């Protein structure tokens, strides 16, 4: 399923005045693949997505979806988009909105199937004005995918969702991925990216710092994560300590040599209890890569 390129971004740049928002970015997403796009605010993710969806034109480079230019309205039918902000007609039911969007596509999913994939089939007759924020987010995802697009752009899809709703949305995304849909996902929930993505691309200052499988991205960050309850003491002065975070009495340290930190703690470098040591998470890798 992942052998066919669906999205090809080739040396794309876009500036606003003298400020480069996207700087020589190349990226590819294949059929049946989820690529997580990460980066701090201002990294260029939103500008990149706007060029992929055809809403903005690159200053240089090309964007192609199934070989087509997404700036042409006729070509955008192969792209589904879930923006961060979604306006739904309050007087229409969820099923009516899905049918309205489906009628613009040649081979859409059946309405109830589109809703059921995101766990909201029972809301088919509910007016959009009566839906909760989380239910609207799931409906927006159903609308993005009802036309069986080749590529779907999910921009912070689970913002404001509780845990159960988030997991229901994840199941829907996986179902479409298994059908061969290519997915480009942005999210501030790094657990979400870690859960769904086959590849991770990390952006900062308009450039892609790393684009690789999740395992290799984690492997590039040669640090361990230590956490404990207590104080930081002299830990930040130790060789190989790359980051120290404090939240109340909870301390989190990223270090290249966990053994050195543990020995220092035992020797009295800081007060500690409930010490835990593990490998770097995606959140740790993200922090380390974007701070480099």
Describe this structure in words.
The chain has 292 residues and is α/β, with parallel strands linked by helices. It folds into two domains: 5-218, P-loop containing nucleotide triphosphate hydrolases (Rossmann fold, 3-Layer(aba) Sandwich); 222-291, Alpha-Beta Plaits (2-Layer Sandwich). It is built from nine helices and 13 strands. It has helices at 45-52, 94-102, 111-116, 133-145, 163-178, 190-196, 214-220, 258-266, 282-291; strands at residues 5-16, 19-30, 34-38, 60-65, 79-82, 151-155, 182-186, 199-204, 207-213, 224-230, 241-247, 250-255, 272-279. Strand 1 (5-16) and strand 2 form a beta hairpin. The chain is globular.
Quick structural summary:
With 292 residues, this protein is α/β, with parallel strands linked by helices.
What's the SSE blueprint?
Elements: E1 5-16, E2 19-30, E3 34-38, H1 45-52, E4 60-65, E5 79-82, H2 94-102, H3 111-116, H4 133-145, E6 151-155, H5 163-178, E7 182-186, H6 190-196, E8 199-204, E9 207-213, H7 214-220, E10 224-230, E11 241-247, E12 250-255, H8 258-266, E13 272-279, H9 282-291
Helix pairs in contact: 4-5
